[in-house]
Prior knowledge:
By secondary structure, the chain is α/β, with parallel strands linked by helices. The chain contains 15 helices and 9 strands. Helix content is 48%, strand content 11%.
Amino acid sequence: MSRARLTELRGPGVRPRSLDARALAALAANPGCRRRALLDGAGIDKGALAQALGSPASYGQSQFALIRGNAFEARVKADGGTELLRLLHERLAPGTPPPGPEEIAAPDLSAAGPEGRAARTALALREATAAGGWALLDHPMLVLDVAGSPAYVEPDAVVVHPDGGWTVVEIKSFPMIDGSADAAKVGAAARQAAVYVLALEQVAEHAAAHTGRAVRVRDRALLVCPKDFSNLPAAAAVDVRKQLATTRRQLARLTRVEEIAAALPEGTTFDLRLTDDGRTPTRPPEELAEAVEAVGAAYAPECLAACELAFHCRKRSRQEGAVEALGRGVRGELGGLGTVEEVLAAAASTDADQVDDPAVLALRRAAALRAQALAAAASRAPEPVCR
Length: 387
Ligand code: SF4
C-alpha cells in the first residue's frame, strides 16, 4: 500500500489535513477506532466529511470563549512569566522561592513556517538548557513523527528549569473550583499535554547530546485555569505518565493505517468532490456514507466531545442497536451481549442454558424487580373518581 493510495482516499488535489495535539490526543483516547485511525492517518478533513454526510459536528469553541481564553492566557503570562513561574513553584517545587522577572529568559521563537518555528524552538531549548537558568518559551512549535509524516504541535508554554528539566504548561479556560476541575476536561488536557511531552522527548535527546547536560522532560504538566469563575489563575500539577504510555502506543499503531486502507473495497475514496470554489461537496451523501461504513468504528459517547464524526457514528450505532452507544461502562457489564435487542431478549428469557452467564442473570433479576415495582405501583394507584 503506497502513499498514492492515501492520496486517492482524500481525493486528487486535496491537501492532507495535519494532525494537531488535540487530534492526536483524541486518537489516543479511542484506540480501537479503525475509522478514525484511517481518516486521521490519511489526513482527511473529518469536519467537512461530517458536514457532507449531513451530521455536522457540534463541538468547538465559540468566538467569545476564544477571546476570553486568549485574554486569560495573556494575563497568566504577563510580567515576563512571573505569575506563571510562581504557580509552577507552588505546585511543582513547593518551598523554593520563584525567580524574579529579570531571572526568566524569554527567547524569541519567531521564524517562517512550522518547520522554521520548530527548528527555532529546538535551538532555543538547547540554548536555555546550556545557560542553566529559567526560561519561558511562549507557544513553542514542536514536531512529532506520525506514521512517517511530521505533525506540528504547539503547547501554550514550556518552562526550562535550571537543572535541565522541561515542563509543559497548558492554560485552559474551564474553571478550577475549590482546587478541582471537571474530570473529563482535565483528562483531555492531560492527553494533550502527553502529546507535547512526547514531542519534547525527541528534542531532548538532541539537546542532551549538544549541551552535554542531562535533560529531563517532566512527566507532570502544569495545568492553569481560572480560579472559581474569576479571571485569577489557579494551577494544578497533572501526572501524564499513563496518557504518555497510551499515546506512545497509539502512535506506533498508526503505522498500520496503510493496512486498514488495504482492506477497503477496491475504489473506496472519501473524496468530497468539492466545487471549484472548494466549498460545496458534489458527492452524494449515500456514496460517502458507504465509504465511511466500509471501515469499522468503535463508537462511545465520549466521541461526542472528541471527534467530528460523532453524530454520524452515533446515528449508525443506534440504528444497529449497538450497546456501545450506551457507554463503555454499560458495554463492559453486558459481557457477550452486543445489541439492545439481545439484552431485552436475555432479560425476558427463561432459557436454562444461560444461567451461568452473570450478565444474563443480572438482567433477569433487574427485569423481575422492575415487574414487581410496576405491579406494586399499579396496586397503589387510586380508583378513578366518577362524578
Ligand atoms: S466518532 Fe466515529 S470515527 Fe470518531 S472516534 Fe468515534 S467511532 Fe471513531
